[in-house]
């Protein structure tokens, strides 16, 4: 650069100019100078041609020539040092060389030289630019001068030229144009004046003082019959609309609207009538339509920017529009002689009233529109309603008239003539769309009712909705392909359905408009007619029925709409309960499935009609209350029969032969059959949304196919249903709560996929993603990436599922595991993540600590179900394995000091071990924390590697000393009182129990309770009406059962019960033998009442798969008295309550229908848990919604609570109160207690729903603070509301013939 010549300067200027020209658009588009600089600085990142610019090439070569040798020398030096282990690493080599270069003397000299040269080059460029600008201005001035002198000669204009940018419209020239626009001037002069006006910048024209006069002159000139002159004016208007601000375009718009208003009001203008129709090729009509189109185009554009301007401008535009559209000609004329109003022409151009939709979208404009409609222009709404009413009446009167059908469009052929009937139809469509948009908004609905001409009564909102609904099936039929046709559909049925869909999606709107008995009756009218065997209506096609079903499905998907369909508006009305919408829809759907409706026989659309109405039923039977209403119709059987029939058809479809003409037809037929088959499977699957529905699904024998179908959709991430907001979580949880459901999930591949996905997250990571930075080290025990899989496993592993999936199976315990060996089942997860008891297992895990903690957390949740705990302990001795692991975690022993290494695993193991070995409610055991604490002692909880546990984990419970027996209870238990009127004594006993529970529940001790229960059940069973099950003679003695064996689960359960009983000071040392005998007698006693069932399910292979927690609880209540316990059980087994408190009572019982016994679903689930979900939705709706959002079900957790008699969840005294309440007051109180628990936990449940760990909370946490006595009054209210329904259903579980 030292020898920088003029040639070099010129060359650099050329290069720099090329670069700037290339990035001109980017720089000029920058909002500020700083942004432009940023664009240039980051040009290499944003411009793909950056390295092809000559200036860039020049700079690169210059840098290489100046610094190349130095850079290479430094790199060689660094490479040499690196080989010797002294230099910087490879990652920092570039940074090091760059730093050395930038600090060098050569670099600084180069930058100084380059800066000086570029300053010279840039300065020269700027000077040349200024010279060019001066020259251009002189040329422009000269051009303007010449142009002004030839003002009326040259008509050429280029709005983008510099001429127009500097052109100023003077007052004199505007005055000249005003004079030339005078109607008395020659045609050529007026045309030239308009051309000149169109050529000038609109802003210059509008800013002139004479603008208002010009606007008026143009408005008058619009009436000129000359089409060319009219076109010039409209062109000027269009330019003004496009380029000018709102306060200017507003004047143009209002003047155009006013002109049209005067045009329609003038009797001199020849406006078409309905009789003559509209010929769009007629010159007058063309001119009129151009003006209306310009108006309409502006109407659709202006809402996008009028919010930026004062409201008065918008109000003027709105008012001028409504004023124009409200024009009505003489109404005394016959309809055929009626002169067309402005709205007919607007409807012709904007059939679906898009302009009104846009005006109503924003609150800013909607407020003004609705205010003006209410105060001044309600006639516009009245006219729209009138048009809809007239069209409907014409449909009724002229049903068979083919001319009534909607306008037909002939492909791409342009339509040039519209008859009066077509115009009426177009206006009707416009009115329909306008009213549909109006109904969405609260103040729009307040415009009703409206008073119509020649009608005595006003048209209310409900009347209008009934009218809309009836239009679906009274208007002329649209083609059967209308549902799939790509062209826009203008049929009334389609338009009305679209409006109703929008109304359904908005709760307040739907409540005011649709959830009314007359509207629902209007929907059901054609169905009612078809059920009677008469024609639904002359124009009610299959397509119309599909539209009706679609809207009904949307109504049924919302709580208020569902209630209306199920019970009507007044649930307690004297109206026949079978006449509500739900019953009619179910009957109709059943007839469709059974093909018992002759009207549609052979119709191609019949499967679609069936699917549409089953979809309505599905919205109902997928809820507990809906299923209760629809159960009598056995829809599950009808759907299953249809599915089996369709499945057989799909197997018979011939394989298409290549080259055959029938390939397309066979392919289409097979697609239709497969789609119908999948639809029916989906309908069956939705029965699994409720506990009782799952039982019905299992009865059909299609559960495996349904679960496979669900897994396929789940794997493809398909939506459950268009009306469902959440995924398959609830359904999977519901299915997994039963043994057969768990087997179906395993067979479908769902469990395999879930575990594979979990393993990929835990151990593999995402290898296909380029790593730009290391993954964050997890700090939570369950990393967020694993949380979803963790919760899915918890949802899946209820005890019925656990027993089917791992029962009587050993874990692999291999000597070696390949790193590529991925678990595929629950046994593998237990083996690899929970029971990590060998070096081979540890070495097989990439993330040993994180993965093992995951397994321990999973074990902690699983063991909250005591049956699962006993199963894992009996099969795998998990407690011993964890104790051994803790032993291995102890540091070297120095004397008597044994220090355990405190880490994430040892802390988690310590927590799990306490859970495994201690039983007790919230105040009876103390669980150690899972996190370290701040301070000198981060983990104050003692670790242990052998049993018994340290005393600090056991709460101190003082031995209960029975206080003086309550006087009232003492009177009840006196022999004289019992011998008196038996029924009266039973009732007094119940009353006294309720009063005591409300006032002083603590006086009900084990001794008092045992005696009271014994006497109560004895007296109750002496009344035949109170006995639900027959008497069973049992004569076995201790000697008969002594040699019988109990399952390993039962044996461990006995030890757990004895430990708990001794802790509570209820049992003596000899109690274990007595409890063993009680359980053996109980098992033998129940075996006498079992049926013989052949099933592949493990739980039905023989004895009850879990421990008998009710008998264990009763044994504790009876203070370990074997004889009292057995005598009580034999009496108690005759009562209905025993079916719901004592779960083994109905295991494979002959008293249950054989299909229910084979399903392995206990009444506690399909009856008790079903009603818990049903009542929860009504009583504590927020909790019900929280469960739904979490993908968890109340039925699963309640089944766990009830099965183990709330052990570990309630303190012993509350367990006693629970059992006593159900025995004294009836089995339905079991449901009320569960509802009370959810009510008690409401805030906690909502909180844990937000933190996405609701399942973990409900399973792991005890029910802190819950006391049965606190909710007694609430439960009594529940009894008053629900007892008749619940007891009736509970009494129906037995085989009716017995």
What gross morphology would you assign?
globular
Main β-sheet description? 2 strands, antiparallel
Main sheet strand line-up:
1-2
Q: Given the helix and strand composition, which structural class is it?
A: mainly alpha
Task: Tell me the Rg in angstroms.
Answer: 43 Å
Helix content: 55-70%
Secondary structure tally, helices: 65
- How far apart the termini lie comes to 112 Å
Proportion of residues in extended strands: under 5%
* Regions with little confidence, pLDDT below 50 for 5+ residues: 86-90, 144-168, 400-406, 478-487
Organism: Monodelphis domestica
Pfam families: BROMI, BROMI_C, BROMI_N
Keywords: Cell projection, Cilium, Cytoplasm, Developmental protein
Subcellular location: Cell projection, Cilium; Cytoplasm
Quickly describe the structure.
With 1298 residues, this protein is an all-alpha fold. α14 (246-265) runs antiparallel to α15 (283-301), α24 (492-504) packs parallel to α27 and α29 runs parallel beside α32 (635-652). Interacts with CDK20, which promotes CDK20 stability and function. Interacts with FAM149B1; may play a role in cilium assembly.
Question: Can you walk me through this structure?
Answer:
- Residues 173-844 form the BROMI middle region domain.
- It is a single chain.
- By secondary structure, the protein is mostly helical.
- 62% of the residues lie in helices and 0% in strands.
- It contains 65 helices and two strands.
- Strands 1-2 form a two-stranded antiparallel ribbon.
- α19 (363-375) crosses α20 (378-397) and α24 packs parallel to α27 (542-556).
- The longest helix is centred in the first third of the chain and has 45 residues, at 105-149.
- The protein starts with 5 loop residues before the first helix and ends in an 8-residue tail after the last helix.
- Mean pLDDT is 85; it is low at 86-90, 144-168, 400-406 and 478-487.
């Amino acid at each position: 650069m030292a020898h920088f010549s003029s040639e070099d300067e010129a060359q650099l200027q050329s290069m720099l100019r090329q670069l700037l020209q290339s990035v001109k658009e980017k720089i000029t588009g920058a909002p500020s100078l700083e942004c432009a600089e940023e664009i240039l600085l980051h040009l290499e990142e944003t411009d793909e041609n950056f390295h092809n610019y000559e200036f860039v090439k020049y700079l690169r070569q210059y840098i290489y020539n100046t610094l190349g040798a130095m850079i290479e020398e430094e790199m060689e030096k660094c490479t040499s040092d690196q080989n010797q282990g002294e230099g910087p690493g490879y990652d920092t080599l570039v940074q090091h060389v760059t730093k050395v270069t930038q600090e060098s003397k050569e670099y600084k000299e180069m930058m100084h030289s380059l800066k000086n040269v570029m300053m010279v080059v840039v300065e020269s460029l700027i000077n040349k630019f200024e010279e060019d600008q001066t020259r251009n201005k002189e040329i422009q001035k000269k051009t303007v001068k010449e142009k002004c002198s030839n003002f009326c000669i040259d008509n050429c204009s280029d709005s983008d030229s510099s001429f127009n940018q500097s052109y100023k419209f003077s007052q004199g020239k505007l005055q000249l144009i005003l004079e030339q626009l005078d109607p008395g001037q020659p045609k050529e002069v007026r045309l030239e004046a308009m051309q000149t006006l169109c050529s000038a910048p609109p802003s210059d024209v509008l800013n002139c003082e004479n603008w208002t006069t010009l606007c008026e002159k143009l408005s008058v000139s619009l009436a000129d019959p000359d089409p060319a002159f009219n076109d010039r004016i409209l062109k000027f208007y269009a330019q003004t609309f496009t380029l000018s601000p709102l306060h200017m375009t507003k004047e143009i718009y209002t003047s155009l609207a006013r002109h049209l208003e005067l045009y329609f009001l003038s009797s001199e203008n020849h406006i078409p009538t309905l009789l003559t129709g509209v010929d769009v090729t007629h010159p007058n009509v063309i001119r009129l339509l151009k003006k209306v189109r310009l108006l309409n185009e502006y109407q659709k554009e202006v809402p996008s920017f009028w919010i930026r301007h004062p409201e008065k401008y918008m109000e003027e535009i709105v008012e001028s529009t409504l004023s124009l559209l409200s024009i009505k000609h003489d109404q005394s004329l016959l309809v055929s002689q009626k002169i067309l109003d402005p709205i007919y022409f607007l409807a012709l151009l904007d059939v679906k009233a898009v302009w009104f939709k846009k005006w109503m979208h924003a609150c800013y404009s909607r407020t003004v529109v609705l205010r003006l409609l209410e105060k001044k222009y309600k006639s516009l709404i009245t006219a729209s309603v009138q048009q809809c009413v007239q069209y409907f009446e014409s449909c009724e009167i002229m049903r068979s008239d083919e001319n009534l059908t909607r306008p037909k469009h002939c492909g791409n052929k342009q339509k040039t003539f519209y008859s009066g009937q077509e115009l009426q139809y177009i206006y009707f469509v416009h009115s329909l769309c306008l009213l549909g948009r109006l109904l969405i908004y609260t103040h729009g609905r307040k415009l009703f009712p409206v008073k119509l001409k020649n009608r005595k009564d006003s048209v209310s909102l409900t009347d209008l909705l009934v009218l809309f609904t009836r239009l679906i099936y009274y208007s002329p039929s649209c083609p059967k392909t209308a549902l799939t046709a790509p062209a826009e559909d203008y049929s009334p049925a389609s338009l009305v359905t679209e409006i109703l869909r929008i109304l359904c999606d908005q709760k307040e709107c739907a409540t005011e408009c649709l959830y009314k008995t007359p509207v629902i009756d209007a929907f059901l009218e054609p169905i009612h007619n078809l059920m009677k065997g008469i024609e639904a209506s002359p124009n009610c096609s299959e397509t119309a029925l599909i539209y009706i079903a679609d809207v009904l499905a949307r109504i049924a998907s919302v709580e208020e709409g569902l209630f209306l369909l199920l019970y009507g508006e007044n649930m307690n009305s004297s109206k026949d309960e079978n006449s509500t919408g739900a019953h009619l829809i179910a009957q109709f759907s059943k007839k469709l499935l059974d093909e018992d409706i002759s009207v549609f026989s052979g119709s191609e659309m019949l499967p679609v009609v069936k699917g549409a109405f089953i979809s309505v039923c599905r919205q109902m039977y997928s809820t507990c209350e809906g299923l209760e209403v629809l159960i009598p119709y056995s829809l599950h059987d009808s759907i299953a029969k249809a599915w089996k029939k369709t499945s057989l058809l799909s197997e018979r479809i011939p394989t298409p032969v290549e080259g055959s003409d029938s390939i397309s037809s066979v392919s289409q037929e097979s697609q239709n059959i497969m789609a119908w088959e999948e639809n029916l499977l989906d309908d069956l699957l939705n029965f699994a949304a409720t506990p009782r529905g799952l039982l019905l699904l299992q009865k059909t024998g299609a559960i495996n196919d349904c679960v496979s179908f669900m897994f396929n959709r789940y794997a493809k991430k398909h939506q459950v249903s268009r009306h469902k907001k959440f995924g398959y979580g609830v359904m999977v949880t519901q299915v997994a709560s039963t043994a057969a459901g768990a087997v179906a999930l395993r067979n479908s591949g769902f469990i395999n996929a879930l575990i594979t996905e979990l393993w990929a997250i835990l151990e593999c990571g995402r290898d296909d993603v380029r790593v730009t930075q290391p993954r964050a080290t997890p700090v939570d025990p369950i990393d967020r990436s694993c949380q979803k899989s963790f919760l899915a496993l918890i949802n899946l592993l209820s005890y019925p599922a656990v027993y089917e999936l791992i029962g009587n199976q050993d874990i692999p315990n291999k000597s070696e595991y390949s790193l590529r060996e991925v678990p595929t089942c629950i046994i593998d997860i237990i083996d690899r993540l929970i029971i990590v008891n060998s070096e081979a297992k540890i070495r097989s895990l990439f993330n040993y600590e994180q993965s093992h903690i995951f397994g321990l957390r999973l074990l902690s949740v699983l063991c909250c179900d005591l049956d699962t705990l006993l199963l894992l302990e009996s099969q795998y001795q998990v407690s011993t394995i964890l104790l051994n692991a803790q032993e291995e975690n102890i540091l070297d022993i120095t004397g008597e000091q044994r220090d355990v290494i405190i880490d994430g695993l040892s802390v988690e193991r310590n927590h799990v071990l306490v859970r495994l070995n201690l039983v007790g409610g919230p105040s009876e055991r103390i669980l150690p924390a899972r996190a370290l604490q701040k301070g000198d002692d981060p983990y104050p909880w003692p670790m242990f590697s052998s049993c018994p546990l340290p005393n600090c984990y056991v709460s101190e419970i003082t031995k209960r000393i029975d206080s003086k027996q309550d006087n009232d209870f003492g009177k009840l238990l006196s022999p004289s009182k019992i011998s008196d009127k038996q029924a009266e004594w039973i009732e007094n006993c119940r009353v006294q129990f309720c009063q005591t529970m409300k006032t002083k529940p603590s006086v009900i001790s084990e001794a008092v309770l045992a005696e009271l229960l014994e006497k109560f059940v004895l007296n109750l069973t002496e009344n035949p009406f109170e006995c639900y099950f027959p008497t069973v003679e049992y004569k076995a003695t201790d000697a008969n059962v002594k040699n019988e064996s109990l399952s390993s689960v039962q044996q461990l359960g006995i030890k757990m019960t004895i430990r708990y009983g001794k802790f509570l000071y209820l049992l003596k040392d000899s109690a274990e033998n007595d409890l063993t005998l009680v359980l053996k007698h109980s098992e033998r006693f129940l075996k006498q009442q079992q049926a013989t069932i052949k099933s592949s399910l493990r739980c039905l292979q023989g004895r009850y798969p879990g421990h008998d927690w009710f008998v264990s609880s009763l044994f504790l209540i009876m203070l370990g008295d074997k004889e009292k316990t057995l005598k009580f059980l034999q009496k108690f087994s005759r009562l209905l309550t025993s079916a719901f408190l004592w779960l083994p009572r109905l295991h494979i019982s002959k008293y249950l229908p054989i299909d229910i016994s084979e399903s392995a679903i206990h009444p506690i689930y399909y009856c008790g848990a079903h009603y818990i979900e049903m009542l929860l939705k009504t009583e504590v709706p927020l909790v019900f919604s929280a469960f739904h959002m979490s993908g968890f079900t109340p039925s699963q957790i309640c089944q766990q609570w009830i099965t183990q008699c709330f052990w570990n969840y309630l303190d012993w005294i509350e367990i006693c109160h629970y059992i006593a309440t159900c025995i004294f007051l009836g089995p339905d109180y079991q449901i009320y207690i569960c509802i009370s628990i959810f009510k008690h936990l409401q805030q906690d449940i909502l909180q844990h729903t937000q933190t996405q760990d609701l399942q973990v909370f409900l399973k792991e946490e005890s029910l802190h603070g819950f006391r049965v006595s606190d909710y007694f009054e609430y439960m009594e209210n529940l009894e008053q509301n629900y007892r008749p329904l619940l007891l009736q259903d509970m009494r129906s579980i037995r085989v009716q013939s017995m």
